[in-house]
Amino acid sequence: MHITGVRIFDPEPGHNECLLAYASMEISRMFIVKDLKVIRARDGRMFVDFPSVPTSVRCTNCDKKTDYTARYCPRCGILMPVTPLGSDGEAIKEVHHNLAHPTNERGRQIVHNSVMTEFRRYKSSQQEGGDKWE
Fold first, then answer.
1. Does the predicted TM-score (pTM) go above 0.85?
2. Within 1-134, where are the H helices?
3. Radius of gyration of the chain from Cα atoms?
4. Whole-angstrom Cα distance, residue 76 to residue 61?
5. Residue 59 above 80 pLDDT?
């Protein structure tokens, strides 16, 4: 796999503070992957998250895995809340499905290193007041 280009984009104002940037990546000048995210984890490390879509949530009554667009649980019939809550009152996270991702650790490292190198270059040029697309 040969990454021939990476572009970094600032997130919209008011975004989650863990989201540092969006990225798009060109592979071998033939294929583009958009909506990669540069994320800062709670422990401070940064990683690249791949584009994904929500696929399901769990019913708060019977714990059945249910399509995230369902209004009612297909098992117990309860009305699914807009933001499902667990027994502890915390919001239940949606289950996401990656749309594009590397098939092995080597590919993941290549993507991570390429995106993080460009992210650091982008942030450095912002701090110096330079053009972000140099």
1. no
2. 105-127
3. 19
4. 8
5. yes
